[in-house]
Structures are given as C-alpha cells and as structure tokens.
Write a structure and sequence with these properties.
This is Fanconi anemia group A protein. Residues 490-510 are annotated as: Disordered. Among the domains are: 1-140, no CATH class; 307-500, no CATH class. 63% of the residues lie in helices and 0% in strands. It contains 28 helices and no strands. It has helices spanning 6-11, 19-34, 38-46, 57-72, 86-102, 121-138, 153-165, 172-191, 212-220, 234-248, 254-268, 271-278, 280-292, 301-317, 331-344, 347-355, 362-380, 385-404, 422-429, 432-436, 438-446, 451-455, 460-477, 490-494, 509-516, 519-526, 529-545, 547-571. The longest helix has 25 residues, at 547-571. The chain starts with 5 loop residues before the first helix and ends with a helix. The model is unreliable at 1-15, 105-115, 145-151, 487-507 and 518-533 (pLDDT under 50).
C-alpha cells in the first residue's frame, strides 16, 4: 500500500470526526511495516497528482501536520526522523522538493519551467509546509553572544550544495539543468519570507542585520542571470528591500541599520544597488510607504543617496541646464544611474547628455564607460540590431571623451579583482559571459578611431594582441556565435576580430602588426626592455593559439632589439 495514494483513496470518503485519528493509526502501522523514512515519505507525497488525490485540502493539511510534527520531527535520526530539529526538517524537505522540481514527472514540458513549484498538487502542498515551518523558525530566539546565528543558513547551504554538484559538466545539457536548478532556487526564495535573507544579530551586539549568505548567492549565482543592465530582476530586488526594512525596523536604530547594510552593499554586493536604481520608479513608493509606518522622517541617508543619483542623471537629460552639477558619490552609483537614464532616453537626448560629460570627474567617466561596455555586450547578445548600433555609438562617444581627457583606456579591458575600484566593482556586477566577451567589444570599437590616435595609447599594442588572442580562443570554443555585431562593423566580423585594417588594406592581423606599428614608435613607447618583457607572456600564449601572430610579434621584438643595439653602438 502506497501512502498518500491507496491509503488516501481508502479513507477519502470518511466524514466522521475520527477520520484523522484513524488515518494516523493506519499510517503508523504502515511506517512500522515499511520502515518509511522522512525523505521517503516526502518523495511519495510529492508524486501525488491532482487526479489521484482523493483527500480534500483540509484533510491533506491535517495529515501533513500529524506526519511532520508528531511523527517525523520528534523521531530519532537513526530511524529516518529529525531528532526534533526543525531546521533539519526544513533542509530535508527543501532537498526533496527541488529533486521533484527537476524530475520530468513534476511538470509538463510545455509549461514555463520557472513555474514548476505549482505544477502539481504534491509540490504545492509540500511547499506550503515548508513555508509554515520556516515561519516557525522565524520566531526563534536571538543567538547568544559567541554563537553564530544559523537562521536562514540551511536554505543557502542546500542551494550551494546542489548547484556545486552541477558545476563540473561543460556540456549543454548540464548547463541547462544547472540553469533550471538556479531558477528553482530563485522561485523558492521568492516564496519564503523576505526576512529569511537576513540573520538576527547576536545578543548584546548592535542590531545590524547580516545578509552575507544572500550576498554570496547573488555574486556567485544570480549575477549570471543578469543579462541586461547589470541588475537583478524586479521580483528579487523588491524581495531584498522588503526584507531589509523588516529587519531594520526591528532594531533599536532602523535608519542606522539600513545605512550600514546598504554601505556594505557598495563593496560586497553592488548588484543590489544597481538593481535598486533600475527598478527605482517601482520600488520607491513601497519603500516610502513602509518607512512612514515607522517614522515620519525621510528615508535613511543611503536610500536618499540613490535618490540623489537618480536626480543627477535626470539633470543631465534636462533641457534647462547646459552644465550639470557634480555627480554625488560614490561615482559608480551615479554612473550606473546615468547609464540607465541614457539607455532609456531618446537618441537626440543621449547626444546632449554625452556632450555634458567633459566637465565631470574622471572616475565617473571611467565607470560610465564600463557600464556602457556591458550595455554594448548585452545589445550584441540580443537580436535587436538597432539597439546594438545605438549602444556602440554611445560607447564610442564616451570612449572619445576619455581620449580627450588622456585617460589610459586600453587597460580597462584587462580588469582583475586586484584592481581596486573599477576592477572589483565591475567583476561583481557583470555576468561572467560579458567579461569573457570583452575582446568582442574592444574590436567593435576600434573602427570608430583613427590608427594614429590608437597608437598614441601606451598600452594599446599589448592590449590589442591580448584581446586578439582571447577572441581567437572564444572563436575556437564557439562562444562568438552568440555575438551579433552591428552592420557597420561587418568588416570586423569578417576578420575574426582583427583591428582596423592598415593603409595597405592587408587582410591579416599579423600583417597589421607588421605594417601598422612603426619600429621607432614601438621603441619610443615601449622603452626597449620593458616592451620586450611585456610581450613575453603574449608570445608564449600566442604560439599555440596563432603561430602567425606569434611570428609577427617576434619580428617586432627583434626590430626593437636591433634599434637598441644601434643606439648603443652610436653612444659608444
């Protein structure tokens, strides 16, 4: 006899008050006979289909309450129970629920996979039990000083373990399965109380909510679902800020608690702030409403800072001002707000905004260029050719502004976590795919500039070769197939990402190296030994990737060496 099926069918017609008692007794006998564990029972419950469930919603709820709280929760772990640990019960239930969502039996393949949780009765009912038990955990006491609060950790622990198990495979099937798993994690997260994203402060410590687990989940997983605007979706953004205000309003100083958390976002999870900027028109009314229920004063200063960034971006779009006021700090927040405003503006308004940038701080321009690069790659990854052309024009205009300010822009394409400021922030904002495709953006932009202006950039040759080799590797791996570049840069597509052709119209990148960069220029800018040393790693990388490029670089290296020897002979 299968619990929840034959047992439910036998007793579903019973209307007497003793129905649940009889059901519990029979279920107890079944457990003794089959040694049913908590996980086994959950699996059977999750397999119940709507047409096979003869229990009413109330009867099913009574049955679940008895099985969970009177049988499996107090039962020892040795016999398949939870030893009275409600968090363990939640973790096992969550694991079983996600297994069911990944199963082909849990939803119709014609449906949106993101809706798998509600696609059958078993999933819906068991998820309701998870919501109830998490609500019970929410009422738990504050952790004593010296003990780490564990509330909410079980959720992200299960997510992390399951996603890591799918991280090794590089085939398309595994990638799609992992993406489906991540979407399931997100939907479960949205179905649970938003305060679960935050842990209670320890007893005796300042009442500042901690959300380190959520920050890690965003940076490591949700970031790679942000295909546009370096921002999370509206639902998860609102969920976070609801949880933030709920957690802060329970502290002794809600404004301070909110400020400390949002300040931590600047360095630990900037994606939360760019998401708030993107969804601010929808988010701001709810934030004001919730805050006014506690205080008649203004929003906390860090939320006001987001408002100021929005006002700054709007001021640049305004026809009433020719010169914009200085951008409020931090610069990357104002740059993100400006990038979003430019993307939404009309083309003629965009031109006017960009004409006002020369008076802004260099840091703002650098961050704005970085955001425009991400916008360019997002446009390349989408089929709308008009969006791609406009994004490229905008990016080139900002790059031209950097050139006029003599900002060394080529190095912006070689960012690492060691680069304080822009490098670390951008790597926490952009999806991994966008970072890998930076070489495509680099060569898309070169067609906008004259060769002489490019060669004046000190690091240009090194960066150009590095980008070419990386682009070649992307091509071999098949990743460049997802990039759709604008029509006016078709010449670059035909050359597999080679720089703009030199004057002799040579069609190969090695020839471009050999004819475009004069020996004297290379020597003067490279300072001899320094230039040779910086090219050594590229030569090593290019030998297998592109022998022709490696040979061209060796030729230029020898040319510089000969110039050095000639000069030394003249001096002696």
């Amino acid at each position: 006899m299968v619990p929840g099926h034959s047992l439910g069918t036998t007793l579903s017609a019973a209307e007497s008050p003793g129905f649940c008692v009889v059901l519990a007794v029979l279920f107890g006998h079944l457990v003794l006979l089959s040694q049913l564990t908590y996980r086994d029972w959950l699996q059977l419950e999750l397999e119940i289909q709507p047409e096979a469930d003869l229990l009413s919603d109330t009867e099913r709820w009574d049955f679940h309450q008895w099985a969970l709280h009177q049988h499996f929760l107090p039962a020892p772990c040795a016999v398949g129970g939870c030893d009275g640990d409600l968090e363990t019960a939640c973790s096992v239930l969550l694991d079983a629920l996600m297994d069911s969502c990944q199963s082909s039996k849990s939803y119709d393949h014609g449906e949106n996979p993101d809706l798998a949780l509600g696609s059958c009765t078993g999933n819906r009912d068991v998820f309701s039990r998870l919501q109830e038990m998490v609500g019970d955990l929410e009422q738990g006491p504050v952790a004593p000083l010296g003990h780490s609060p564990s509330r909410g950790h079980f959720l992200f622990t299960v997510f992390r373990r399951r996603l890591q198990a799918l991280a090794g495979g590089g085939d398309m099937a595994t990638c799609l399965q992992r993406q489906q798993e991540l979407l399931t994690c997100k939907r479960i997260l949205l179905g649970l109380p938003p305060s679960l994203l935050f842990s209670h402060p320890q007893e005796g410590q300042p009442a500042t909510p901690s959300c380190d687990n959520f920050f890690h989940f965003v940076n490591s997983e949700l970031r790679n679902l942000c295909f546009h605007d370096c921002a999370l979706t509206h639902d998860i953004t609102v969920h976070f800020f609801r949880g933030l205000l709920n957690a802060c309003l329970r502290s002794s100083d809600p404004a301070l608690a909110a400020d400390l958390t949002l300040t931590a976002c600047q360095t630990q999870c900037p994606l939360v702030l760019t998401s708030a900027l993107l969804w601010w028109p929808h988010l701001e009314p709810e934030l004001h409403c919730r805050w006014r229920k506690w205080s008649q004063g203004p929003l906390p200063p860090e939320l006001q800072r987001l408002q100021e960034a929005q006002r700054f971006a709007r001021s640049l779009l305004s026809l009433d001002t020719d010169v914009a006021s200085p951008a409020p700090g931090p610069a990357w927040v104002s740059a993100a707000a400006l990038h979003l405003a430019v993307r939404r503006a009309r083309k003629e308004d965009t031109v006017r905004v960009l004409s006002k940038l020369d008076g802004q701080r260099e840091e703002l321009l650098v961050f704005l260029f970085a955001f425009s690069l991400m916008g360019l790659l997002s446009a390349h990854l989408s089929p709308q050719a008009a969006d791609s052309r406009r994004a490229l024009d905008t990016c080139a205009e900002i790059l031209g502004c950097l050139q006029r300010r003599r900002v060394p822009w080529p190095r912006l394409f070689q960012l690492t976590e060691a680069d304080a400021g822009l490098g670390r922030t951008l790597l926490l904002l952009a999806p991994d795919q966008h970072i890998r495709l930076l070489p495509a953006a680099f060569y898309s932009l070169l067609s906008y500039f004259e060769e002489d202006s490019l060669l004046k950039e000190e690091a240009f040759l090194h960066v150009a070769v590095d980008m070419y080799l990386k682009l070649t590797c992307l091509f071999v791996a098949g990743e460049t197939r997802v990039v759709s570049t604008p029509a006016h840069s078709l010449e670059l597509q035909g050359q597999a990402g080679r720089p703009r052709e030199p004057a002799n119209k040579s069609s190969s990148f090695p020839a471009a190296i050999d004819t475009t960069v004069p020996k004297k220029e290379l020597h003067t800018r490279g300072r001899g030994n320094t230039q040779r040393l910086t090219l050594v790693p590229l030569l090593a990388a290019g030998a297998d990737c592109d022998p022709e490029v490696s040979a061209a670089l060796l030729s230029r290296q020898q040319a510089v060496l000969n110039l050095d020897l000639d000069q030394e002979a003249c001096l002696s």
